[in-house]
Sequence to fold (230 residues):
Amino acid sequence: MIERKIMEDKFNLFIISGFIRKEIPEVPIKEIVLEKTPLGERVTIHTSTPGLVIGREGSNIKKLTKALKEEFKYENPQIKIAEVTEPNLSAPIVAKIMANNLSRFGSQKFKLTGFKAMQNIMMAGAMGVEIRITGKLPSSRAKSWRFTKGYIKKTGYVSDFLVDHAIESVTLKTGVVGIQVSIMLPDTPLPDKIIYIDNTLEKKVEDLIKSSKSEKVEIDLDEEVLNGEI
Fold:
């Protein structure tokens, strides 16, 4: 029963997330969180542009609230907006911004879009990034263009659970273009990372030994002076 309940909640979150993204397709969204409270269902939208989600005088919020009531039969849905402080370290936001740029400027400047996104991600402090743009860019045959920089894991636990992945698509005059973004976040724990310990501790120990020896010599000299030997 517990497993069935978990799967049901995950499925509902997947359906609601897809529904909200279709309602506001131009907004870059990192993730959507669904919570159940005593007052009703709370939907938290993590985005880098809260103003676009809210809309003029809260028009988008009212529209989403009404749609959730009609589509999912929620009695009192509450929509909360959470701002993403560093959008360049979020793969879904970067992929959505790239898709919006391609839709606005066309396929002729796809290289500029890819290089600019890669540069912004690395300047934000990421360990590595890989961007793939696939489609008819700009020739009549579909190709895959790859933009990569830094260090990024491609397989294993780190790649599956610690690297931020996102896939986005946009329809242009030449056809559908796919965008895949993978970001290795800063301070990602790596099992094969070797940490070299510097010799500061050894230097501190040597300094303590030298200082203790000099103090002992001074004490011995003082005792000889008191005894009248010097």
In short: Residues 196-230 form one domain. The chain is about 45% helix and 25% strand.
